[in-house]
Amino acid sequence: MCGIVGYVGDQEAAPILVAGLKRLEYRGYDSAGVAVLNDATLTVVRATGKLRNLEGKVAVEMPKGRIGIGHTRWATHGRPSDENAHPHTFEGVSVVHNGIIENHLALKAALKAKGHVFASETDSEVFAHLIRESQRAGKSLPEAVRVAVSQIKGTYALVAITEADPTRIVCTRESQPMVLGYGEGQNFIASDVPALLEHTRDVVFMDDGDVAVVTKDGVELTDRSGAKVVRKHTRIDWTPGMAEKNGHKHFMHKEICEQARAVADTLRGRILRSEGDVHFDGWSMTEAQVKAMDRVWILACGTSWHSGLAGKWMIETLARIPVEVELASEFRYRDPIVTRSQLAVAISQSGETLDTLAAMREAKSRGATTMTLCNVVGSAMTREADFTVLTNAGPEIGVASTKAFTTQLVGLYLLAIKLGRMRGTLTKEQAQEHLTSLAGVPKVIEQVLLTEAKVKEIARKYMHAQDFLFLGRGPMHPVALEGALKLKEISYIHAEGYAGGEMKHGPIALIDEKMPVLVVAPQEPRIHYEKIIGNIEEVRARGGQVIAVVEEGDEHAKSLANDYIEIPKTSALIAPLIATIPLQLLSYHVADLRGTDVDQPRNLAKSVTVE
Ligand code: AGP
Questions:
Q1: Which residue of the set 254, 312, 418, 606 is catalytic?
Q2: What are phi and psi of 575, to 5 degrees?
């Protein structure tokens, strides 16, 4: 969603702000802007559309000054336009805001009655007016920000500068991410770490209610009441290169190709081969708690929910605990039966997805132990969960999730082994076998990536299809769902994922010669293989086009399909991870051939921090 940057130091602010916003482009946006202070003169430049439009304006007349704020906006209140782009400014106060002000209409009406004139359709502009109103009453910028946020109902990451106080930036947050970057003689603010990496690795993740006053010489952190607070500094290991394309045409392609490395990093330090066990830093459940556990909840959205569905297979198979996988947006609004003897696992790449965060809070408030399987250290979920297992995939920039999915599957597999060992459902020798297969996954991923040329040919053949069906059974059902999600989100082709057994209950009516059906058909578990072969025959009998993902040497499946992609033979629990990769490549190449905006597909945002 929206991105925020802030800078104060000895350098010209505008180029730093624009470069920072570029690092946040992946979050999705439809307009952008910067505001820069030069002594007591504020210059604001805004542009609808891609950042290059803003860059063009800044290049013509660069706003001078060494302190400033910038923003990429993803429209919620008011269409994308220059007027609705942030920063919003009123009488020398300029603000950028992520989040939603629920009571903005009432606040606007009250301010209008006092003579305020609004220049945009946004809720966010209210902040500039509220701050100015307090300044008129003699309050300092930090005080005015405190008063402003005390009047609003909603969520915010808010950053403000003012002509009346031209050396300080004030920022605060509530349910929206905000991170401070510490430099020498300069300091930074951002909604997400990639915007800071070029300048510093020394960061502080702000907590809800924190108010930061940032100058070039330091940062003063207080809580809502003004009392000083101390927050832990975190050192970010990600290199700037990890957030760059490294010669790939798109981030998504780079991220698909680096999955062997990402999986190796997720496994690193966790496999205790001789003990047949798994080590997680920060694991806080005792053997007694795990033995008494009667249910695991998995709470997630989108791709992370699909990995959760595969995780159910892993945990139920190895640890024999019932697992409920819930869409976080549904879970948070029902009355789930959660008890103290349950574990709730929130899965999220970003750690900031509002629905997942709210679902995790709901589970916690009902007594469950909470764990997050997350990729972003310091994110809201990692701060609120009882403990965290990091996926270590490195920054995922493409909106379409790829390496986050495969590393989540690895994390879930490790979790299943750990729970199985603690509950005694898995012997040391059995665990060792699983760990050996997992350790071999990076090599298998490298092999499966070699299918790319063939996948691209297939993409060329089917790129004009209007609809696509993806079928899988058992642990391959989530893979089918994920394949369909990938294709639809980046190529805009209508695609649906189904469990093979459901085909006769409806989707079979869609099959004709124009309908490509991608069938994921590894040979294990055998019972699923036999049934999915039956599905392939049903599709062919009705003139449908079958693209089959089959295991090497499976001549029977190959002979039935119109096109096939061969993947190495693996076990039933590893196969989802491997079989997903050709599907990611297929979506990528179809989208690239159709010329869509692969990394930032229309209407989508990388991290969905609003409902
Ligand atoms: C998948 O490609 C999407 N980007 C989306 O479904 C995503 O997985 C979902 O929004 C959840 O995000 P999270 O993992 O950051 O919580």
A1: 606
A2: -55, -40
